[in-house]
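TA notes, week 10

Several of you asked for a full example with nothing omitted. So below is the full record: structure tokens for the whole chain, then the designed sequence directly under it. When grading your own attempts, check the secondary structure regions first.
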């Protein structure tokens, strides 16, 4: 019915072997065009141009169990896997790009290449929009930061600690320890910032430090950024908010099963990721139709799938209409009727 075919007298839908042949059909050029269209879809989804967008970039383990192209052994995950890159817009959770790649940490050239293509597409549509990129430490590569600085893109990346950085914040660590002994609290934090240049950097950059003294000793974390603001605000409100990207990846990977990349060809697995991203868009749009005070507005994708989509019913094809009968004991009748009414009001 969703594709315009009658449930009983209409033509049959494609079989699983036909779907498999479809997955193997697109080549690299077609996939690049699809991924570019995905960025266009992201831009089209906004009613008006945003003044500022924050892009969260991260990757995830996609374990494989065969001889798939691009599969590599990753010592961190102790498995053969892919490590696809996910990019989401932070405020709305909308997907911008999902890119299949080998099971290894991306280097600086690869990160800069991904940012150049994705942000270049967004800037072509929105020349004046302010863009901030957020990621953990293995995205804070000098090539990526240098490209962001040249293109006037804001960034805030995690930075792995070392002896030099720990030495720069030793006074703050001592102050935090004294504050804890003095009764400020079980955990005492201090924040600071300074200029720093690693050996692989050509220029000094701003580093924000968070030092915490707790029952298990001192813990120091660092981020590198070109954003203005107080160190505490940048760390707690800007950088730490990137944790939401983990939930978005979870929704894409687990709730929509996008880790089922079992095709031999890399192009077929990339196409599967695009299909699952289309399912993500459908779920996100359906959830967005619910009223702000409704339970369904914040429901996880697997909850929506199990409670509103994957339900038993009787389909009766009549001459002038199609009748759907749901079980009288179905517990989510009100939510189903509400969302169905919202869908019916959408323009064709």
């Amino acid at each position: 019915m969703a594709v315009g075919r009658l449930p009983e007298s209409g033509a049959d839908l494609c079989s699983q072997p036909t779907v498999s042949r479809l997955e193997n059909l697109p080549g690299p050029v077609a996939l690049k065009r699809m991924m570019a269209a995905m960025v266009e879809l992201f831009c089209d989804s906004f009613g008006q141009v945003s003044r500022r967008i924050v892009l969260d970039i991260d990757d995830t383990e996609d374990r494989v169990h065969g001889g798939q192209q691009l599969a590599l052994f990753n010592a961190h995950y102790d498995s053969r896997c892919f490590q696809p890159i996910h990019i989401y817009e932070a405020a709305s959770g909308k997907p911008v790009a999902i890119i299949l790649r080998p099971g290894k940490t991306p280097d600086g050239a690869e990160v800069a290449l991904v940012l150049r293509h994705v942000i270049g597409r967004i800037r072509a549509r929105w020349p004046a929009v302010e863009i901030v990129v957020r990621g953990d430490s293995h995205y804070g590569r000098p090539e990526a930061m240098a490209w962001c600085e040249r293109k006037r893109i804001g960034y805030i990346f995690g930075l792995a600690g070392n002896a030099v950085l720990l030495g720069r914040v030793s006074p703050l660590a001592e102050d935090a320890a004294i504050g804890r002994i003095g009764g400020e609290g079980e955990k005492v934090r201090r924040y600071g910032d300074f200029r720093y240049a690693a050996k692989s950097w050509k220029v000094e950059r701003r580093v924000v430090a968070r030092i915490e003294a707790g029952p298990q000793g001192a813990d120091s974390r660092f981020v590198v950024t070109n954003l203005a603001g107080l160190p505490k605000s940048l760390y707690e409100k800007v950088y730490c908010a990137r944790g939401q990207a983990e939930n978005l990846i979870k929704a894409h990977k687990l709730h929509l099963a996008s880790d089922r990349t079992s095709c031999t060809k890399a192009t077929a697995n990339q196409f599967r990721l695009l299909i699952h991203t289309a399912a993500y868009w459908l779920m996100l749009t359906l959830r967005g139709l619910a009223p702000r005070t409704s339970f369904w507005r914040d429901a996880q994708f697997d909850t929506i799938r199990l409670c509103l989509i994957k339900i038993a019913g009787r389909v009766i094809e009549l001459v002038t209409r199609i009748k759907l009968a749901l079980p009288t004991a179905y517990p989510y009748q009100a939510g189903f009727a509400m969302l169905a009414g919202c869908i019916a009001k959408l323009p064709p």
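The chain is about 40% helix and 20% strand. Use that as a sanity check on your answer.
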